[in-house]
Write a structure and sequence with these properties.
- The complex is a heterodimer of chains A (169) and B (527).
- Chain A is built from six helices and five strands, in the order ααβαββαβαβα.
- With 169 residues, chain A is of the alpha/beta class.
- Chain A has a single domain, classed as Rossmann fold (3-Layer(aba) Sandwich).
- In chain A, strands 2-1-3-4-5 form a five-stranded parallel sheet, with helices on both faces.
- In chain A, β1, α3 and β2 form a beta-alpha-beta unit.
- The longest helix of chain A is centred in the last third of the chain and has 12 residues.
- Chain B is α+β, with helices and mostly antiparallel strands and 527 residues long.
- Chain B contains 17 helices and 15 strands.
- In chain B, strands 1-2-5-4-3 form a five-stranded mixed sheet, covered by helices on one side. A three-stranded antiparallel sheet of chain B has the order 8-9-10.
- In chain B, β9 and β10 form a beta hairpin.
- Chain B is globular.
- Classes of the chains: A alpha/beta (169), B alpha+beta (527).
Amino acid sequence: MFRILKKSLKTGIVTGRHPVAPKDEAGVSPTASLKAKPFRRSLTIREVDTGSCNACEMEMNALMNPIYDAERFGIHIAASPRHADALVVTGPVTVNMEKALKDAYRSTPDPKLVIALGDCACDCGMFKGSYAVTGPVERHVPVDVKVRGCPPRPAEILHALQRLQGQSD
Amino acid sequence: MTDVIEKLRAAFGQTIADATIHHGIPLLRVGKAEVPLVAHYIHTHPDLQGTLSLLWAVDHRPREQRYELWYLFTLADPRAWLLLTTDLLNEERLFPSITPHIHAAKWYEREIRDMFGLIAQGHPDLRRLVRHEHWPKGTHPLKKEFPWNTVMGQQQGQYAFRRIEGEGVFEIPVGPIHAGIIEPGHFRFSVAGEPVLQLEIRHFWKHRGVEKLFENLSLHAGVSLAERVSGDTSFGHSLCYCQTIEMLLGITVPRRAGYLRALFLELERLHNHLGDVGAICNDTAYALAHAHGSRLKEQMMQLNDRLTGSRFLRDVNRVGGTAVDLDTAQLDQVVAELDRIERDFSELESIIFANASLADRLETTGVLDERTAIDHGVMGVVGRASNIDRDVRRDRPFAAYDELPVNVARYRYGDVRARMRVRMDEIHESIRLIRDVRTRIPQGPVLAAPARVPAAGEWALSAVEGWRGEILYFVMAGPDGTIHRCKVRDPSFVNWPAIQFAVLGNIIPDFPLINKSFNLSYAGNDL
């Protein structure tokens, strides 16, 4: 017990100890901001991996660690698309995942947002044209926001989400 | 090496059509009908005890009208490689399966059937593996006549899961999209009450055609694709790819680059292991350890970012060395940061070990016994937790590991706790290795130029101990510096089937915990 307390006191508050994201990146259109209006205070995300190399997943996971702590901005991760306000889709959409992506999209209640995360989701990246890839994401479901990068840094993802929520400049 | 060849020659005589040594690896050529016999001998002979490390096919057309099958064995002592190869000439599509004797070949032979249309006769399970049911009949992407950018049609079909029937037995399908931020895969449990009677894993949802895409690239350009085979192992994969190409191009990597590669490989191991220790605790609902673990992982990734400009150590490896050099100040900074992290982590360890209810969840959960692990050729962290004493860094030193002796962590019980303990020990060992790198690293260049251009048909094979385990790359050169065939093997491909055995008899709520303790890559498995 004392060991745990001592550790917590020694560690202190680490939230926010990360390099800031460059402010210039666009990606959030006025239409998307308008669509995101109901989610200004609380945005629940379902992450759907449609064939990424798992680097984007690692950065999404990092978003939930004590350093980025996305929960403090009302961003939550849901276990089911039925509980989600937004789908975050990573990867170039493989032939095997195409149906699963469409199912997840249909299962998400309206109004909903789709965020394409990473270069693969935006334009298939290195996997463009492969026989096993049918993407990008916007070919299958309407995409509201694109966050580029291979993978985008957690600070950049957080910044994009906050802009979407209208919490940032 | 020659005595292995002599031994096999004595046992099989004229059956072995040809025996050579290539890049230090004995290579035996036999007729396809004799493969199961010779493979069985290598696998079971007490002096050899070869485990199947890799099995792959090469389509030699249009240059020659033949397919070639390659079997790579790792012998028990010393841990030398042995290659067995056979030809399928002209219109031959059948080859005898070795799976009835060697379990480890099971997925490989199914994969070869899907990718090349070559059928393993006598294989106990010839369902599709990579190709899901909606892929049209006759689609075999790695055949040379199959264009890489084919737009595939669709057909109807259903995968036949193995079923267990009886009173009170029911099935739980999970996936491909499952809870949490995790990659897609399908798990089909058959349970009676809580305990799992059977688990069947259905993967390859993420198949992106990586091996076919390699064939479009030049030898030098493949590095960035290798970095994207499995993002969390970006450096391990790119290092293994670079080593293979360097063998083909006759490059001797400068010593300093070798040391830097060892350093970055250990950094990659560190951030993944630190995250995993926390994540294993998280799956027992112990959020505090998870918070600390993910904090330490994030600190490591920020360190990567400061050193190389990439949190995943991407764009660091080049064919011939590294693109990044670190000066003395940076190396001191790394060691100072790691000193802090090791102190921090040791405190976390003592908190974890002091928690009795956590130990209760971890001990005896998800036991993978040594026999099963050997039979399936399980490797890496998972293997070392089941008493398999293998580590490429020690057994077949690459980069600068010939001057950096590694103490291999090993536990006997094969449960979740053993897998966590292996990770904890390796964290300390990696930090020690990085301190060693700091004191021993020589001055000099970090990038060397190619010495030669490989002729079409030349090949090389190389292994790297990534943080999950042994990564293998086989590259055969095409004409004019192109890639004819690139076989990629992430340790996940071998370790996934072993989970099906580790969960037997465990309760369903422990599955996420067991899965996390293996922590395998879906992307590296599906390619």
